[in-house]
Sequence to fold (370 residues):
Amino acid sequence: MHVLVLGAGQLARMMSLAGAPLNIEISAYDVGSENIVHPLTQAVLGKGLSNAIAQADVITAEFEHIPHDVLDVCEQSGKFYPTADAIKAGGDRRIEKALLDAAKVNNAKHYIINTRHDFEQAIEFVGLPMVLKSALGGYDGKGQWRLKELSQVDAIWSEMEQCIQATDTQAIVAEEFVPFDREVSLVGARSSDGDVVVYPLAENVHINGVLSLSTAINETALQQQAKEMFTAVANELDYVGVLALEFFDVKGALSVNEIAPRVHNSGHWTQQGAETCQFENHLRAVCGMPLGSTEMIRPTTMVNILGEDTLPVEVLAMDSCHIHWYGKDKRPGRKMGHINVCGHDYPKLTDNLAELGRVLDKNAFPVFNG
Ligand code: ATP
Ligand code: MG
Fold:
């Protein structure tokens, strides 16, 4: 089985690692260079996109910011999973909000802004404080503003206006500020037969808008609520593959923040903590194979490695730690890899995390500060 992945980053790399035991071979389309590359070595495989489409059994994507003409030719081949519409929903907050409303899942009150007049209407409809997000191209908290008081309106509008005018398809989505207790996410898979499996929820800690820690949790009522919302969204999209939903937990009631139509950073813990990891389950789903068990086999936390390309040797020596490097060149803040930390129970996981925190440089891993 040969799978072509749109996008050639760490998610394609980890799909390739998970696919090998099932004889699933991956090649990746680098959207920037327009080359077909090997997902592990980045070696150019020397064939154009149309050849790669013709040679693939199945085509999928590892991220949502893919040119629509590329998505459309992939979809026309009849081999693309999930659907171009699902990828577009993940890449455009306007489509995403419409999807959440159509699936009737709880999400923050919102309003779409194209003009200054819309901005005034949004302030009236959504109220303050509000979060403003560019409809296209946002990730890791980039392209966002916080409007707390009316005195900020002019300054924020002048920045948003520039953003809107930069391309003819951009807009801003205003959202009510959700006073959440914590952020959780649900990663799951839907097969072409409509079967849905989900992993345990992960509790996520962000620092400066970037995911820092993600821990699988075991909370039955919240899990049930999340699974219902997941199933509603996945069915609405007639989804095939792994999908992630990010939620705000407000006193035990979930509100969907956003969706990711792909394997997700908050699902990396499944590599050591679940019976079948998210990368394998995504490949199983898109290749039409039975889905694997999503059962948690041991409590696990994923720690992102940002902007660092080395770790103290002690980390590798710790029984509880598993390092996953992405083979990328070092740049400040860049996602370079992650560490999965395991424990045979939650108290042991807490101890193991504390031990890891003592070994790591606190400047590089501020989540372990205090
Ligand atoms: P990514 O795709 O990397 O998850 P992003 O740039 O798409 O991030 P969001 O997830 O929408 O952005 O927002 C980043 C963070 O900002 C959220 O994880 C949350 O902490 C905060 N945030 C976003 N929207 C709201 C909101 N409506 N109310 C309160 N906080 C919010
Ligand atoms: Mg997010």
About this structure: The pocket of adenosine-5'-triphosphate (ligand 1) is lined by residues 108, 131, 133, 138-142, 175, 177-178, 183, 206, 209, 246, 257-258 (CB under 6 Å).
